[in-house]
Amino acid sequence: MAGTNSERRMIAEGPAIILVEPQLGENIGMVARAMANFGLAELRLVNPRDGWPSDKARSAAAKADHVIDGTQVFDTLEEAIADLNFVYATTARQRDGFKPVRSPVTAAETLRSRFRTGERTGILFGREKSGLTNEDVALADEIVTFPVNPAFASLNIAQAVLLMSYEWMKSGMDDVTATPFQEVEQAPATKDELIGFFEHIEEALDARGYFHPINKKPKMIDNLRAVLSRRAFTSPELSVMRGVISSLDRFQRRRPHPEAAQAGEGREPGHDDD
Amino acid sequence: MAGTNSERRMIAEGPAIILVEPQLGENIGMVARAMANFGLAELRLVNPRDGWPSDKARSAAAKADHVIDGTQVFDTLEEAIADLNFVYATTARQRDGFKPVRSPVTAAETLRSRFRTGERTGILFGREKSGLTNEDVALADEIVTFPVNPAFASLNIAQAVLLMSYEWMKSGMDDVTATPFQEVEQAPATKDELIGFFEHIEEALDARGYFHPINKKPKMIDNLRAVLSRRAFTSPELSVMRGVISSLDRFQRRRPHPEAAQAGEGREPGHDDD
């Protein structure tokens, strides 16, 4: 099931990620990796402290080379956003001012709808220690902030980029409950298959005197069927279960395990039902 | 506005995060930090390669000491989940088998509803290099997987924990578009305030001969009002704008800036309207 072409599609589109005066190459690399994980590719750096290119960044990017290779460096934030139509600033603290404040979900939806109409967009992330200045924030259209633990609110830069990238990816999904792969079978078995299973196990138990005393047999069958049908078995699951019953039914134990024999002591068949 | 008690509330509840045979202390520390960011506190380690406690983990946890101090270590995964009622396994690849596969959003909602009914829950995360084995996954109730770029799907362990912790936090919010703080003012100004602003600026312009030729004045006013009302100004914003107009209107330029004077060359007031 794995390895179809569509599963390997490289996604590389969407808002630019703009890091303002990042300090550590490792952080820039982790940002690149997080972007690649969720299909973003355009990284811009404003005045990175340790220069560019950066071996540490490339190493931390864990093969997100397409992001690292395409990274652009600017002297000022004004230059870094010059060609963009709409920009978010990420910040963990309230600013005085008139900017609308959005959740990551709302911001991602806004970025997605602007992307679909052809606008060029970006998201600003601040310095490791001090975040964005008020002057940086003033250049953005709106603010985005994360719903964090109030007593432990500090996200590192790669984490913040990861969360926005993840919400960006989700904003492009028709259904956020969809998954890239699914379980092998989802539909419950037919009732015919289920009743066949009931009859199989009941016959094997009956042959062993499980339904004892016999006047309780209807109630015991009710209980057993309730237990076995609470979870809706699929067809392949019923095949597995029927194999188990057949094995227990037809074959004698060959090498009794000492522990298992001990654990079974004192257990009587047919008395766990009422 | 900042610094109220409610803003500093420490959240520490919810599913246990269980790392199976983690290798690097740094990763364990970043996991602890991610948990603390989104209000989780219970970290369990199965057979960590470099032992426990770990100075590297504490350092990377960036002061999430309550998580590090409470971390429990187990020899086996079976022991680590023994007291739990419901467990998710995180995996990036499809497994043969019968486990339901959920998105992070669905998984977080499921964990939240089980938490509210008093169940104890957990989320399994695999080894840095190889993830969870099929045997590990078999011990979980359901699988959770992330919507990633198909060609760049590998999340590191701290990133995966961060995303699940973030979705956990969101699952407890009544409204995922809510933000921990809001802009200072959101309501648009009244029309009375807005019209007062229009009249202010129009009077100042009229006094300068802006509305030229005079027969175009009604159309020019229409255009100007359209520009000024497209974005709904708030009351404080109108105060700022009226201050700007008053300053331009009442005070002569004191120290003409050479560049500004040059940039203004060739611009005639009153001719940018049609």
UniProtKB/TrEMBL annotation, chains A, B:
<dbReference type="InterPro" id="IPR029028">
    <property type="entry name" value="Alpha/beta_knot_MTases"/>
</dbReference>
<feature type="domain" description="tRNA/rRNA methyltransferase SpoU type">
    <location>
        <begin position="16"/>
        <end position="166"/>
    </location>
</feature>
<keyword id="KW-0489">Methyltransferase</keyword>
<keyword id="KW-0819">tRNA processing</keyword>
<dbReference type="InterPro" id="IPR029026">
    <property type="entry name" value="tRNA_m1G_MTases_N"/>
</dbReference>
<comment type="function">
    <text>Catalyzes the formation of 2'O-methylated cytidine (Cm32) or 2'O-methylated uridine (Um32) at position 32 in tRNA.</text>
</comment>
<feature type="compositionally biased region" description="Basic and acidic residues">
    <location>
        <begin position="265"/>
        <end position="274"/>
    </location>
</feature>
<dbReference type="InterPro" id="IPR001537">
    <property type="entry name" value="SpoU_MeTrfase"/>
</dbReference>
<keyword id="KW-0808">Transferase</keyword>
<feature type="region of interest" description="Disordered">
    <location>
        <begin position="251"/>
        <end position="274"/>
    </location>
</feature>
<dbReference type="GO" id="GO:0032259">
    <property type="term" value="P:methylation"/>
</dbReference>
<comment type="subunit">
    <text>Homodimer.</text>
</comment>
<keyword id="KW-0949">S-adenosyl-L-methionine</keyword>
<dbReference type="GO" id="GO:0008168">
    <property type="term" value="F:methyltransferase activity"/>
</dbReference>
<dbReference type="Pfam" id="PF00588">
    <property type="entry name" value="SpoU_methylase"/>
</dbReference>
<protein>
    <recommendedName>
        <fullName>tRNA (cytidine/uridine-2'-O-)-methyltransferase TrmJ</fullName>
        <ecNumber>2.1.1.200</ecNumber>
    </recommendedName>
</protein>
<keyword id="KW-0963">Cytoplasm</keyword>
<comment type="similarity">
    <text>Belongs to the class IV-like SAM-binding methyltransferase superfamily. RNA methyltransferase TrmH family.</text>
</comment>
<dbReference type="InterPro" id="IPR004384">
    <property type="entry name" value="RNA_MeTrfase_TrmJ/LasT"/>
</dbReference>
